[in-house]
Amino acid sequence: MIEVIVSQGRVADRAARMIEGAARTARAFEERYGTRSRYIGRPAPHATDDWRVSLPQARETLHGLASAIEESVKSEGLTVLLSNTCSASLASLPVVAREHPDAVVLWIDAHGDFNTPDTTDSGYLGGMVLAGACGLWDSGHGAGLRSTQVVLVGARDIDAQERQLLDQARVRIIPPERATPANVLEAIGDRPVWIHIDWDVLEPGYLPADYSVPNGMLPQQIHAIFEALQDRILGFELAEFNASEVPGENEQALQVICEIVSPVLSRRTSR
């Protein structure tokens, strides 16, 4: 069974069409793979605000997501979270850590998202989410994820203080040029996997994402990782698809997304 959970409430969105991007991805999965989607939260306008404002605003959505994810994970099917921002992982990662304490989290992202309230320059909640899930600061939504079971894949834009925290926490980092199935398999050993993807990990031009930076991964690299790990994936979450207003661009982006995850979704839906 595949359960698709779609975040539709604002969770620190700073761009206008992140919520739309998650909904469009859900519809694409429904059309291509025959999945059903569960929508959580009510849309609210984007804003460039500090985490002290956006975190309380997202409280209801995060609680709703955590409840839906826990129910899905306990059902022992494949859990898929389609989220507007990485901040929604404040809801998912504590559940994964509690229900699957042996699982490795592959954080496939251009950024480390390992800042804390004391180190963040931008005040963006999404840049603090992984540190929160690992207990470096209290988000109010739980923690429990062991940093030694996190592998950053594709990360290349990391703040200096954030780098210190990652080193201290012994978080492994696989840069884009070394992000091969063999290196990922070596990093995770024989453990099950939960995958997070922020679409800014890709080389710019494949799909519209907030905070894109150059020298990124290619779609076929991530596809190959999904293919290599397909039997060990407990669930995955996709974030930060900022839907475009340019005709045809969304359709092209959704084709890229569907192809990347096809080794898992095609196999699960054909059973």
CATH architecture: 3-Layer(aba) Sandwich
Structural class: alpha/beta
Mean pLDDT: 96
**What is the makeup of the main sheet?**
8 strands, parallel
User: For this entry, what is the oligomeric state of its chains?
Assistant: single chain
The total strand number stands at 8
What is the global morphology? globular
Beta-strand portion reads 15-25%
Task: Report the total helices.
Answer: 9
CATH fold-level assignment: Arginase, Chain A
| Biggest β-sheet: strands ordered side by side in the sheet | 2-1-3-8-7-4-5-6
Please compute the radius of gyration using only Cα atoms: 17 Å
Order of secondary-structure elements: EHEHHEHEHEHEHEHEH
CATH superfamily: Ureohydrolase domain
User: Ends: how far apart?
Assistant: 9 Å
Outline the low-pLDDT stretches: none
How many distinct folded domains?
Answer: 1
Helix content: 25-40%
CATH C-level label? Alpha Beta
